[in-house]
């Protein structure tokens, strides 16, 4: 059965990293194998800055950024191939020329459309180099254009997958002719051949899409960490690895802000019971983490998510009426339109409380809209702690010395909101 590997930007950020990728793949002789690759390093950020320069009419800035992008990729090609760099360099040059041409052609189009025609080149460039390198070191590959594989609608920057059309397009990729199929993450295409992108965590999602349509045996996402943890190791000094959790548990953790796999990646895998494994490309001997159907391990270890820079809105009807279903429907509809996620929702007879990520460009228009029709009390610079499968002693210890401003809990999950200045520094989990 087919295996799907996904490599992010950190795993191919330069020539040395691409060499390590080749060495890694040489150790895995599984076939059929589909390899999904992101853009190199911070290339997507560079392309977004290039797009801004193009749309702002900053001609000199645009040319400088385009040339920097060209030089960086050609330097990687030179470092990898040396005297044999010519053919690969020509393909890279051709892609940069096409990127420039598209900017000129689409300069007057709406930004989401222009964005997708620009940012997709990060993955096109990286996979061109990676595929050529694998061939160079003796691994036969077939480079595939994800815009011709992943069929989507024309909702640019957040395209929706046409699953039936995609399944038809990828038919045959699971044939075992010894070649590794290399394609791009994050990228799709409409029926008319227009480039689209899949939105947040799009490269992981690409791997899941292909796995679903190919009835793959497994998806492996290669990261610079050994697996999934029960808390952010940068904030919790004794976080532990979760070696096995279920799809549902991983989705719950992601919903509450954990840096795990995005729910949209997990859902198509869950539908066909395809396990997802997270492994370290830096330490192949480190035990991985696997997400699958087995729920036996979900409650063994408490998981903690700390979301900072939160804003609490306490919303009340001005006429002292009840916060009934029509009013809640109105408020939550505005939240959807603003593109904001409420990490905590609590309601009373005359109150609805929302804890939101503090994105000023989205939050401020929402608050202004709500203030037109409701009495709104606002609290900024807060931190939301979510604990899954914790007990009262754990919650009490974590809350000690902190003022709880709001709380919500059910059988599996407890949430408490604290002033942000009381949540600085490193936390310790009292298991």
Automatic annotation (TrEMBL):
Aspartate/glutamate/uridylate kinase domain mapped to chain residues: 1-279
Protein name, as recorded: Aspartokinase
Class of enzymatic activity (EC top level): transferase
Catalysis: reaction(s): L-aspartate + ATP = 4-phospho-L-aspartate + ADP
Entry EC no(s): 2.7.2.4
GO biological process: homoserine biosynthetic process; lysine biosynthetic process via diaminopimelate; threonine biosynthetic process
Source organism (scientific name): Halomonas ventosae
Annotated pathway: Amino-acid biosynthesis; L-threonine biosynthesis; L-threonine from L-aspartate: step 1/5; Amino-acid biosynthesis; L-lysine biosynthesis via DAP pathway; (S)-tetrahydrodipicolinate from L-aspartate: step 1/4; Amino-acid biosynthesis; L-methionine biosynthesis via de novo pathway; L-homoserine from L-aspartate: step 1/3
Keyword Manganese: no
Cellular component per GO, a single term: cytosol
Gene Ontology molecular functions: aspartate kinase activity; ATP binding
UniProt-listed InterPro entries: AceGlu_kinase-like_sf, Asp/Glu/Uridylate_kinase, Asp_kinase, AsparK_Bifunc_asparK/hSer_DH
Keywords: Amino-acid biosynthesis, ATP-binding, Kinase, Nucleotide-binding, Transferase
Similarity comment text for this entry: Belongs to the aspartokinase family.
């Amino acid at each position: 059965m087919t295996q799907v590997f996904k490599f992010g930007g950190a795993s191919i950020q330069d020539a040395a990293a691409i060499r390590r990728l080749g060495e890694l793949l040489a150790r895995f002789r599984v076939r059929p194998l589909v390899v999904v690759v992101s853009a190199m390093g911070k290339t997507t950020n560079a392309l977004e800055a290039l797009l801004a320069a193009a749309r702002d009419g900053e001609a000199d800035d645009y040319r400088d950024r385009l040339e920097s992008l060209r030089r960086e990729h050609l330097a990687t090609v030179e470092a990898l191939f040396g005297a044999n760099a010519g053919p690969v360099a020509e393909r890279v040059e051709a892609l940069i020329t096409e990127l420039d041409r598209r900017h000129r052609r689409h300069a007057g189009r709406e930004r989401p459309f222009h964005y997708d025609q620009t940012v997709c080149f990060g993955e096109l460039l990286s996979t061109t180099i990676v595929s050529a390198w694998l061939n160079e070191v003796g691994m036969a590959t077939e480079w595939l254009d994800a815009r011709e594989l992943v069929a989507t609608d024309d909702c640019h920057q957040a395209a929706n997958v046409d699953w039936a059309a995609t399944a038809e397009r990828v038919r045959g990729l699971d044939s075992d002719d010894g070649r590794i199929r290399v394609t791009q993450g994050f990228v799709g295409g409409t029926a008319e051949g227009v480039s689209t992108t899949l939105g947040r965590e799009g490269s992981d999602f690409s791997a899941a899409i292909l796995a679903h349509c190919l009835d793959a045996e497994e998806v492996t996402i290669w990261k610079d960490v050994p697996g999934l943890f029960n808390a952010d190791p940068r904030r919790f000094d004794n976080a532990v690895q979760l070696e096995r959790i279920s799809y549902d548990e991983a989705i719950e953790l992601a919903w509450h802000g954990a840096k795990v796999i995005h729910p949209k990646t997990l859902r198509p895998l869950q539908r066909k019971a395809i396990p997802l494994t997270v492994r370290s490309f830096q330490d192949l001997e480190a035990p991985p983490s696997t997400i699958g159907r087995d729920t036996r391990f979900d409650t063994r270890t408490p998981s903690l998510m700390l979301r900072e820079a939160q804003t609490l809105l306490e919303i009340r009807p001005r006429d002292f009426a009840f916060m009934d279903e029509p009013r809640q429907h109105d408020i939550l509809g505005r939240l959807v339109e603003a593109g904001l996620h409420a990490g905590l929702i609590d309601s009373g007879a005359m109150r609805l409380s929302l804890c939101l990520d503090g994105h000023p460009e989205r939050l401020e228009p929402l608050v202004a809209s709500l203030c037109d029709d409701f009495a709104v009390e606002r609290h900024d610079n807060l931190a939301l702690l979510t604990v899954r499968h914790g007990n009262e002693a754990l919650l009490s210890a974590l809350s000690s010395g902190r003022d709880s401003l709001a709380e919500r809990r059910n059988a599996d999950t407890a949430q408490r909101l604290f002033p942000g200045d009381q949540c600085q520094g490193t936390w310790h989990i009292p298991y």
